[in-house]
Specification:
This protein is of the alpha/beta class. The chain is built from 20 helices and 17 strands.
Length: 512
């Protein structure tokens, strides 16, 4: 899928969703659709629109109007209007029962609305009143005689997304202009790795936590173990590539499967069994991490004959990164509701993590004991720019290694990694931006999986190549904890993947 195809899929998907939710079998039925585009307003009779969708060449009423659209747009509109919709058993209903889904519907009301004003509340009221149909027949059943469709606003979303890509390209150009020294590889000889699966009963869940442990066989005992937390919709299996390689380099790793926000939860959404998981799963995630550390500390869980190292490093991807930062001491700065109000005034295509972050305005986080023996935090594709405000990360007292990807459209590196990185106070903290890396780069996938077929526009560099570079930089950072030094800044190159490793002052010229 090319980027242009992805943009077309995004905009038409949002449009189809907006239209499909506006149906209810009661009078008065919609008769007219006012379409705005390119400064024009086209009043379209919906019955004639339906007839045009079925026979576009034999429709003298709408033909002259719709010929104002380019051929590709006309063909897309025709397919969209005839698109069959069966929402009774689809995942859309469950997705929209989630907090993020409701916020999305409110924003979609700016694209399709009644003549009385914004359609967001109307769409929310109609969520449970749908039936199998087509897009155009659902339009006819909307409980208002007049509907307005703003294609200019839809086009603006695509423009903003393209602008976001240009901003990230500019960031790469600025990174490339830095005079950075090359960084040598830190990977040594691989040791034999042992693996074990454990189940840990915990008080805050109805069933035991599923854990996977990796540790090196033989040699000296490591001084630190790594507690790994996967991202939203992820799993310990998807992070095995990182856990096993770090164990082979000498560090024991324990990965937690977080029920409710793992790959099983996403399968439940796709199969129509549960709603889309969001930040409501964060309190349990934090308690998961605390329970696991307690079990390692008191000896209920150990890494082979050497037992457990005394010190700890937190390691997380995406939502797992957010949980790790919060447990390490990050604070949600007062004023989150105001920041969310400002940043959710339109559909958040530029930073989709806003939908997750702003859910925290309706949640309470548990009181947790600080992680004992914490030496460092490593985060991959982290987010939280709205949560942290200006100083929310300043209270983290240990060095942080933050990875971002120049092709990440989920948690864009400028907003979600670079700007927040400047809040870290420890001089040993580093920001590592992977050129061509995406939000999916740290996810272990097989070549034939669907995600890998989306193309480099969305997936970025081959994740397997990026992952080799990530392992090497993880190893370099962990080695500095033993020596008491800091990870040097510089340009790390491995198998064609370039990663820019920066300290705090080096990030200043990168900001627009």
């Amino acid at each position: 899928m090319s980027l242009s195809q992805a943009l077309r899929t995004l905009t038409h998907g949002l449009l189809a969703l907006a239209i499909s939710l506006g149906s209810v079998p009661r009078a008065p039925a919609a008769e007219q659709l006012l379409v705005r585009f390119s400064g024009l307003e086209l009043p379209l009779d919906i019955n004639e629109l339906e007839a045009w969708a079925l026979r576009p060449k034999a429709n003298p009423e709408l033909g002259p109007w719709l010929n104002l659209l380019d051929q590709q747009t006309r063909e897309d509109l025709q397919r969209l209007l005839q698109q069959p919709l069966n929402l009774e058993n689809s995942t859309i209903a469950l997705l929209l029962e989630s907090w993020a889904g409701r916020q999305l519907v409110l924003q979609l009301g700016s694209l399709l609305r009644s003549a009385d004003g914004d359609g967001g509340p109307l769409l929310l009221d109609l969520l449970q009143k749908r039936r199998p149909s087509t897009v155009v027949s659902l339009l006819k059943e909307a409980p208002t005689p007049h509907l307005e469709l703003d294609l200019d606003a839809l086009s603006l979303l695509g423009f903003q997304l393209r602008e976001q890509l240009e901003t990230q390209k500019t960031l790469v150009q600025r990174l490339q202009s830095l005079d950075l020294l090359p960084l040598a590889s830190a990977i040594g000889d691989r040791r034999v790795v042992q693996r074990r699966h454990r189940a840990l009963p915990v008080a805050h869940r109805g069933s035991a936590l599923e854990l996977d442990l990796w540790w090196p066989q033989g040699g000296q005992q490591a001084q630190r173990w790594l507690l790994l937390s996967h991202g939203l919709g992820g799993s310990t299996a998807q992070m095995e590539w990182l856990a096993s390689e770090l164990a082979a380099q000498g560090w024991p790793v324990l990965a937690v499967q977080h029920p409710g926000s793992d790959d099983t939860a996403v399968r439940g959404l796709l199969e129509g069994r549960q709603t889309l998981p969001g930040l409501e799963t964060l309190p349990n995630r934090l308690q998961d991490l605390q329970a696991v550390q307690a079990a390692v500390s008191d000896g209920r869980i150990g890494f082979g004959p050497h037992g457990s190292p005394p010190r700890l490093v937190l390691l997380g991807h995406s939502l797992g990164a957010l949980a790790s930062l919060l447990w390490a001491g990050a604070e949600v700065e007062p004023g989150l509701a105001e920041r969310c109000s400002q940043n959710l005034q339109q559909i958040p295509v530029l930073d989709s993590s806003f939908l997750l972050q702003c859910q925290l305005t309706e949640l309470s986080l548990p009181e947790l004991e600080p992680p004992a023996g914490l030496d460092a935090v490593v985060v991959l594709n982290s987010f939280g720019s709205l949560l942290w405000g200006e100083r929310g990360l300043a209270s983290i007292a240990v060095p942080v290694l933050s990875f971002g990807g120049s092709m990440d459209l989920i948690t864009p590196p400028l907003n979600e990694q670079l700007r927040p990185f400047q809040q870290f106070q420890h001089p040993g903290s580093r920001l590592a931006v992977v050129e061509g890396g995406s939000h999916f780069s740290p996810v272990g996938l097989q070549r034939d999986q669907a995600l890998m077929r989306l193309g480099s526009d969305l997936v970025g560099e081959d994740p397997r190549l990026v992952q080799r570079a990530l392992v090497d930089l993880h190893a370099r950072f962990l080695q500095t904890l033993d020596t008491g030094e800091s990870l040097p800044s510089g340009l790390h190159s491995m198998q064609g993947v370039s990663t820019y490793v920066l300290d705090g002052p080096m990030t200043e010229p990168l900001l627009p």
